[in-house]
Write a structure and sequence with these properties.
Helix content is about 35%, strand content about 20%. It is an alpha/beta fold.
Length: about 230
C-alpha cells in the first residue's frame, strides 16, 4: 500500500529544490575545445582556459607539453613566467626537484640554491666541476680553501741557489713550480694553488732579499775596515 503522506512530503521537497535553485546556476552555456580545461568566462558561461591536459601532461600556453607541467610564453611580456610566493610567510615556500627523501635541486625562499649535481651558467659542459661559468664573474669577495706555504720559513726548507733558478728559467722559460703559459691556456688556472705558489715565491724572494742584505752589510763592514787600514 502506497503511503500517500510520504509521497506528498517528497514531492514538496523536490518542488522546494527546484524553486530555490538560483536560475544563474541552473543554466550554464558555452562551448570549448577538446582537452582544454574549462573556465567560467562569465557568471553562466564556460569557455577554454590556458590549461591544456593531453591525458598525462598539463600545458600552460602550449598544447604540446612534454613534462607533467610545461609553461610556454609566446609573448613579449617580460614578466610572464612562473612565480611562487607565500605572502608574509615566505619561509614556507621552496621549489624542489627529486623525490621526497632525495631532493637533487632546491631553491629556498631566502635565495639559497642547493644542487647535488653540477650547475652550468652559459654552458652545458661542466666536466668534473660543481660550477662552470662561460663568461665573467663579478664578486666583492672570493674565499678559496687550500693549503698555505709558510713552510718556506722552516729551517729545513732548502732555498734554491739563484744560479739554479737562473738556469731553470733559461731552460724552461718560466719559474720553478709555476705552470707554463701553454698549460694555463689549455687547462685554466687553479686559483687556490696559484695563490699559494705566488705567496711561496714572494716568501722565497723575501729570503733572497734578507740573504743579499746580509751579504751587502758584510761587504760594507769589510770595506769600512779596509778603508780604515789605509788611513
Amino acid at each position: 500500500m502506497i503511503n500517500t503522506k510520504a509521497v506528498r512530503t517528497i514531492s514538496a521537497l523536490l518542488l522546494a529544490v527546484v524553486v530555490f535553485v538560483p536560475s544563474t546556476y541552473a543554466q550554464i552555456y558555452g562551448s570549448g575545445t577538446a582537452n582544454y580545461i574549462s573556465k567560467f568566462t562569465d557568471v553562466n558561461t564556460i569557455g577554454n582556459s590556458i590549461l591544456y591536459q593531453n591525458g598525462s601532461d598539463i600545458g600552460i600556453g602550449t598544447t604540446t607539453a612534454n613534462y607533467r607541467i610545461e609553461i610556454y610564453n609566446n609573448s613579449n611580456d617580460a614578466t610572464a613566467g612562473l612565480k611562487i610566493a607565500a605572502g608574509t610567510v615566505a619561509s614556507n615556500i621552496a621549489l624542489s626537484v627529486g623525490s621526497a627523501s632525495d631532493e637533487k635541486f632546491t631553491i629556498l625562499a631566502n635565495g639559497t640554491v642547493y644542487s647535488e649535481g653540477s650547475i652550468g651558467i652559459g654552458t652545458t659542459t661542466m666536466g668534473a666541476h660543481k660550477l662552470a661559468v662561460c663568461g665573467t664573474i663579478h664578486a666583492t669577495g672570493i674565499t678559496v680553501e687550500s693549503g698555505w706555504c709558510d713552510f718556506v720559513f722552516d729551517k729545513e726548507y732548502k732555498l734554491r741557489p739563484l744560479e739554479e733558478v737562473e738556469g731553470f728559467i733559461q731552460a724552461n722559460k718560466h719559474l720553478p713550480e709555476i705552470p707554463p703559459g701553454k698549460e694555463v691556456e689549455e687547462r685554466g688556472l687553479d686559483l687556490g694553488k696559484m695563490q699559494m705558489k705566488m705567496i711561496q715565491k714572494i716568501e722565497e724572494l723575501t729570503l733572497y732579499a734578507i740573504e743579499q742584505n746580509k751579504r751587502i752589510a758584510k761587504l760594507e763592514e769589510e770595506n769600512k775596515k779596509l778603508q780604515m787600514t789605509k788611513q
